[in-house]
Amino acid sequence: MASHLRSILLSTLVTASLAGPVSGAARPSAVPAPAPAAFPPLRVATLAERYATSRDGIRAAERMAAGHGHRWRAAMLRAMADPARQFLSFDGRDGGRAVEVFGDLSQAERIAVLVPGSDTNLDKYGLLRGGSLRLRQALGDRSAVIAWLGYATPSTVSADALTTGRAAQAAPDLRAFVRELRSAKPAARISVVCHSYGSVVCGQAASGLDVTDIVLYGSPGVCVDNAAALHTRATVWAGRSSDDWVAGVPFAAVVFGTDPVSPEFGARVFAAGDGGHSDYLRPGVALENVARIVSGQAPSEEGRRA
């Protein structure tokens, strides 16, 4: 009964949010930014040039944001322009696109490409960055994590979050990025690690991704009936924590298809602990298992649901 009431409450909250405008600060997409410069092809030899070009673009975007009175965005961009940080690309327009590297990509033998879900933008970049840093630490030496904020993510409380439109638009760009990455690092073990609506993006792109593993976590579904329908040679993994609200969304199966952690979907299910929807890459079972999968090891059974 309690679970049923939670589902009704969640559905009501989402419907109410969709029906009315969201008040507060300026929308992230409303903050102006200059067009980005052209980037050279992604190669080990061009990494330093791409990092420098991105830094120049971030600083230009910071100046424009500050000039228009957007202090929060300007502060975020000032931190992103730190010389110690490594961005393969950056575009501050329309909420922002950024592809950041954690670790030494030139020496990496194991690479995780994180594809974030809804409500991820330059103003809320901290969660993606924090998870990327923790995953990189869990992976250890000769690894890299790439935070791929390469698309305009939908707001959680929007009609866009209930359709595949944003994912379909993002899929060609994810495929192109992974293709470039594979060309630059042909011997590396590459995995895409896809959270929430980001898993919808990965599902749309799956057939064109030359990766070893596709890791879905906190996923509402990937718009197919089973893992075989993704038409990928990659091993498909799925995990969901016990306190993730996405399991209680009553219309998820209608919009996004078979639950990825269900037996009928056919993914390899891994233990993801008892955290919430945004907790997978915090210290715990889920983070450890994602790191093990990216490293080519079997995930731990500890904390796995019966």
TrEMBL record:
Residues 1-19 form the signal peptide. InterPro entries: AB_hydrolase_fold, DUF1023. Keywords: Signal. Residues 91-250 form the DUF1023 domain. Transmembrane segments: none annotated. It holds the Pfam family Abhydrolase_8. Gene3D superfamilies: alpha/beta hydrolase. This is DUF1023 domain-containing protein.
